[in-house]
Design a protein that fits this description.
Elements lengths: L2 H20 L6 H27 L18 H19 L5 E5 L2 E10 L2 E10 L7 E7 L10 H6 L5 E4 L14 E3 L2 E4 L6 E8 L2 E8 L3 E5 L4 E4 L1 E2 L10 E3 L14 E7 L2 E6 L9 E7 H7 L6 E5 L7 E6 L3 E4 L2 E2 L17 E6 L5 E6 L11 H10 L4 E4 L8 E3 L2 E2 L13 E7 L7
Parallel strand pairs: 12-13
Antiparallel strand pairs: 1-2, 2-3, 3-22, 4-26, 5-24, 5-26, 6-7, 6-18, 8-9, 8-18, 10-11, 10-17, 13-16, 14-15, 14-16, 19-20, 19-23, 21-22, 21-23, 24-25
């Protein structure tokens, strides 16, 4: 007996029992009984048929207007996406300049000309829907922020297929200059409210967002609430209140003029100094004007919270850099607003963007050599728009520009193997994103 028949029999027997208990035998008994049974079969047939067709993809309904086709498995869908991706890429680029390091990833090497002078491009396009194992995220050079390494060593941390230099950093120490969030952990805060890219992992899929990155950082205690200006960033003004976590390094920076640094463990200030102080592994340090910390020293339950802008709330990873190159599908280079005048000349470049098909596009352009003269930020913006980006932004460039694909440095950085970097964007195969 099938599922539908079993349901029908159970339902109808129950109704018959109720009827038999309530209705005494009469000349019309058999007529009424027949009507009830017929009605039961008709109703339950409809219910069961509808339930089976809607809950089990191998069933389908067919009528004059619609037909629901058989279920497609995730692997079949992924293969279909890969075929579509390959078709688009093959149509977009010359085949002799094109390779596929893995499913969903295309690498293209091209030479183009600006004013009859050459520029060498390395382009990587990524469609994560064609490979559920792909993971795209930033990586730091070391466990502490004051670390640097060449891109090959950063890429080896997660056996990356692709790696490209990412955000700005302080050359002397390696500390990232700008927002950096990895695996939902805020490592550093933004500078000058510059643009950033967010990588969202949700419902088994990867998507992207781009915008100005701000952070609302609040220090709370049992008696007071105060705003912090940043987290794990070099001090810009002596009046700023800044939080330093163990990721910063072993020691905090020196206290600002007329200020102090205070170590917080278990919600209480346990040490205070006008000089450097050790950052507790199970706590954090607050660097602020002395009056603020003297008042806070009397309080308990000290902790901090960080709120991100709405479009970044679901981002698992964030990299701040800039300036914008493309916004809402149009060239948009906000050099002055984001205080980037010093880098607006013709240089080696790195950039990142995404298109309306949710494909990620990253590029490097070599410069400062006869075979590749480099580009300005405006030229870079037009290149990213030409590649189909609806949003794009500049990464750190100049001597930092370097890209790694399948175990090799594939561009020509100023220094062989590239300079020592603070952080990079990496692409690896780590397994499917959990469903949420």
């Amino acid at each position: 007996m099938g599922t539908a028949e079993a349901i029908k029999k159970t339902f109808c027997m129950a109704e018959f029992k109720k009827f038999k208990e309530k209705v005494p035998p009469s000349p019309y008994y058999n007529v009424i009984l027949t009507a009830i049974v017929t009605l039961c079969i008709t109703v339950t047939s409809g219910i069961c048929s509808k339930a089976l067709s809607s809950n089990h993809p191998i069933f389908f309904e067919e009528n004059q207007n619609t037909q629901h086709v058989a279920y497609i498995s995730p692997l079949q869908l992924e293969a279909q996406k890969q075929a579509e991706f390959v078709s688009r890429i093959n149509s977009k680029y010359p085949l002799n300049a094109l390779t596929y390091p893995t499913k969903g990833v295309a690498h293209i090497k091209l030479t183009r000309y600006i004013n009859q002078k050459p520029i060498k491009l390395n382009i990587v396009e990524i469609d994560a829907s064609a490979n559920s194992a792909l993971r795209i995220k930033p990586q730091t050079a070391g466990e502490k922020l004051n670390s640097k390494a060449q891109i090959r060593n950063i890429a080896k941390k997660d056996n990356s297929i692709v790696a490209i230099n990412a955000g700005y950093f302080k050359p002397q120490t390696g500390v990232p200059l700008g927002a950096l969030v990895i695996n939902n952990e805020v490592l550093t805060g933004p500078i000058y409210n510059r643009v950033g890219i967010g990588i969202i992992e949700k419902n088994g899929q990867i998507s992207y967002t781009m915008g100005k990155v701000s952070m609302d950082i609040t220090i709370k205690s049992n008696k007071s609430t105060l705003k912090a200006d940043n987290i794990n960033q070099p001090r810009m003004l002596s009046t700023y209140t800044i939080i330093y976590t163990p990721k910063w390094g072993k020691m905090s920076p020196y206290a600002p003029k007329y200020g102090k640094v205070a170590a917080v463990v278990g919600g209480k200030i346990v040490a205070m100094s006008a000089n450097q102080i050790e950052i507790p592994q199970d706590g954090f340090v607050i660097s602020a004007p002395a009056k603020i910390l003297d008042n806070l020293a009397k309080e308990k339950n000290i902790k901090y919270t960080i709120k991100l802008p709405e479009n970044f709330e679901n981002a698992r990873h964030i990299i701040g850099a800039g300036p914008y190159l493309v916004k809402d599908g149009e060239v948009y280079v906000d050099v002055t607003e984001q205080k980037f005048q010093a880098i607006s000349g013709r240089n080696p470049r790195s950039a990142i963007g995404f298109n309306d098909k949710n494909e990620l596009i990253i590029i490097t352009i070599d410069g400062r050599e006869e075979s590749s003269i480099g580009v300005t930020l405006t030229e870079l913006a037009y290149i990213m728009k030409g590649l189909g980006c609806t949003y794009a932004m500049n990464f750190d460039g100049g001597g930092s520009s370097v890209i790694y694909v399948n175990g090799k440095i594939t561009n020509s950085p100023a220094q062989k193997e590239g300079i020592w970097l603070s952080n990079a964007l990496t692409v690896s195969e780590e397994g499917p994103i959990p469903q949420t």
